[in-house]
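Example for tutorial group B:
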C-alpha cells in the first residue's frame, strides 16, 4: 500500500478524523485485526452479530496504527458514514494514483477462477512485480483490499472477481477498469442465486463491458456463452482452449501417474511444451487462459510457459499429499459446484493407486435443481471412484446417485471415523464440497 496520511484518507472517503490525525498508514488494510501489520489500517464493519470496531485494540496490538470505520475506536479512526463505500473509494483512489505504468487484469468464471488466478500471477510475476488476489478474496470487500496492496513498484494488478448477482462485477469494474478481462466459463456456480445460466453469462459479461477503451478480452473458445461475449467489446479479443480456432490452443494432452498434465500450447507464432506440477486435466485449460492473458499483458509464450512449470495453487485446491498409512489425499475442499466436482473426480480417476475413494459434501447455491444435481454428481462419481462417501444429510442425494458404491454419513466426524477405519495403503481419497460444508476439517484430520 502506498503511504497515506489520515487526512488524505478522510478527504478521499468523505470522513472525519477521531483521534490523532497526524499519523500515516504505511502497510496494508485488513478486515481481521489479527492479520494487521505494523503501520497498517484496520477496516471495521458493524455486522449483525459482530462489531469489528470492538476489535480495534486487537488490531492495534498487532501493529495497526489507524482504523477506517463508522464510529470512533481507541485507535485514531477515520469515521465514514458507510465503511464499505469508504473502503472502495480509498482503493479506487490508490489505484488511480498508480495507474500510469500499471496493467490491471480482471478474471472471472463459474469455476477455476482462483487456480487460474494463481497461474496468471506466476506468469506475470516472472516478468515484473505483481500484486494478485490472495486466495478467493473476490467480492466487494476482497477486491478493494487487493487493490490497496498495490504500491509504486507494482506493474501488474491481478483481480479475481466473483459474483452472486447481476451488477456485482460491474460494481467492481467501476472501481478500476481492467486492461485485460479474462472470462473462463459460464457454469452452475450460484445458479440458485442467478436463476439461469443466461443470467450468469450476463453477470460474467460485465467484466468484458468494463474494459478500458482498447482493452483486451481473453475468452474461452470452448464455451459458447463465453465466446459470445466477443460482441460486448470493440477492442481486441484473444481466445484460449482446445478448440481448433483458439488463439492459444491446448494440444497433445496427457497425464502422468499422479494425474499431472503435459501438453503443448500453440499460437500462430509459436508452439511450446508444458508440464504442470498440478493435478487434473482441467489445469491445462486454466494454463492456456493464463498464457493468453499473459500475451495480452505483453508476456511472451516462452516466458509464460517457463513460469507455469513451477506454479502452485492456493490452499485446499487440488493438494496432493501422502498419508501416514500409505494412502494418498487429494484435498480440493475449498469449494465445489457440479462442474468443478466432475473435474476433481476426473483427476481422482487419473491418479494411479489402489481404490479411489471420493468424499463429497454438499454443493451450495444450486437452487431448485439442488437435489437433482447432487444425484447426477453421485452417478458420475460412481463411474470415477470405487467408493463414494456422501457427508451430511444435504449430500445424501449423491449417495442415491452412486448406488451400490455409496456410503452415506451424518457429518464430518463420522467421515473421519469411517476413513480411519477403511483407508488402506495405495488408496487415493478425494475430499471436495462447498466451503460451508467445511470438509477441509476431514482432510486436516487425515493429514
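The residue assignment follows.
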Amino acid at each position: 500500500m502506498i503511504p497515506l496520511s489520515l487526512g488524505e484518507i478522510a478527504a478521499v472517503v468523505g470522513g472525519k478524523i477521531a483521534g490523532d490525525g497526524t499519523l500515516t498508514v504505511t502497510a496494508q488494510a485488513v478486515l481481521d485485526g489479527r492479520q494487521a501489520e505494523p503501520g497498517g489500517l484496520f477496516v471495521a464493519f458493524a455486522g449483525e452479530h459482530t462489531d469489528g470496531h470492538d476489535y480495534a485494540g486487537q488490531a492495534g496490538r498487532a501493529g495497526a496504527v489507524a482504523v477506517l470505520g463508522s464510529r470512533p475506536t481507541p485507535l485514531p479512526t477515520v469515521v465514514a458514514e458507510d465503511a464499505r463505500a469508504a473502503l472502495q473509494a480509498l482503493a479506487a483512489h490508490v489505484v488511480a494514483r498508480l495507474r500510469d505504468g500499471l496493467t490491471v487484469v480482471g478474471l472471472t468464471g463459474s469455476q477455476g477462477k482462483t487456480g487460474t488466478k494463481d497461474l496468471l500471477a506466476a506468469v506475470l510475476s516472472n516478468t515484473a512485480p505483481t500484486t494478485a488476489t490472495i486466495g478467493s478474496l473476490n467480492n466487494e470487500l476482497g477486491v478493494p483490499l487487493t487493490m490497496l496492496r498495490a504500491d509504486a513498484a507494482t506493474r501488474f494488478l491481478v483481480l479475481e472477481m466473483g459474483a452472486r448477482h447481476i451488477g456485482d462485477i460491474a460494481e467492481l469494474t467501476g472501481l478500476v477498469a481492467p486492461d485485460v478481462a479474462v472470462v473462463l466459463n459460464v457454469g452452475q456456480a450460484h445458479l440458485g442465486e442467478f436463476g439461469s445460466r443466461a443470467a450468469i453469462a450476463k453477470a460474467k459479461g460485465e467484466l468484458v463491458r468494463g474494459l478500458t477503451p482498447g482493452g483486451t478480452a481473453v475468452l474461452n473458445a470452448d464455451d459458447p456463452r463465453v465466446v459470445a461475449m466477443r460482441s460486448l467489446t470493440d477492442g481486441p479479443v484473444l481466445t484460449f482452449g482446445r478448440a481448433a480456432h483458439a488463439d492459444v490452443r491446448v494440444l497433445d494432452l496427457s497425464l502422468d501417474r499422479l494425474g499431472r498434465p503435459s501438453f503443448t500450447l500453440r499460437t500462430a507464432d509459436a508452439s511450446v511444451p508444458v508440464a504442470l506440477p498440478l493435478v487434473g486435466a482441467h489445469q491445462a485449460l486454466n494454463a492456456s487462459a493464463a498464457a493468453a492473458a499473459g500475451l495480452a499483458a505483453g508476456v511472451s509464450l516462452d516466458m509464460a510457459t517457463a513460469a507455469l512449470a513451477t506454479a502452485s495453487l492456493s490452499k485446499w485446491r487440488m493438494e496432493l499429499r501422502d498419508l501416514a498409512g500409505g494412502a494418498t489425499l487429494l484435498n480440493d475442499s475449498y469449494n465445489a459446484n457440479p462442474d468443478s466436482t466432475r473435474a476433481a473426480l476426473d483427476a481422482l480417476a487419473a491418479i494411479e493407486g489402489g481404490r479411489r475413494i471420493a468424499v463429497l459434501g454438499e454443493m451450495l447455491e444450486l437452487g431448485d435443481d439442488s437435489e437433482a444435481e447432487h444425484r447426477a454428481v453421485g452417478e458420475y462419481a460412481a463411474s470415477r471412484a470405487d467408493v463414494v462417501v456422501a457427508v451430511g444429510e444435504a449430500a445424501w442425494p449423491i449417495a442415491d446417485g452412486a448406488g451400490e458404491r455409496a456410503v452415506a454419513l451424518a457429518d464430518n466426524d463420522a467421515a473421519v471415523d469411517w476413513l480411519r477405519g477403511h483407508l488402506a495403503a495405495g488408496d487415493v481419497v478425494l475430499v471436495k464440497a462447498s466451503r460451508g460444508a467445511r470438509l477441509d476439517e476431514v482432510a486436516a484430520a487425515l493429514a
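The chain has a mean pLDDT of 95. Compare this with the pattern of hydrophobic and polar residues in the output above.
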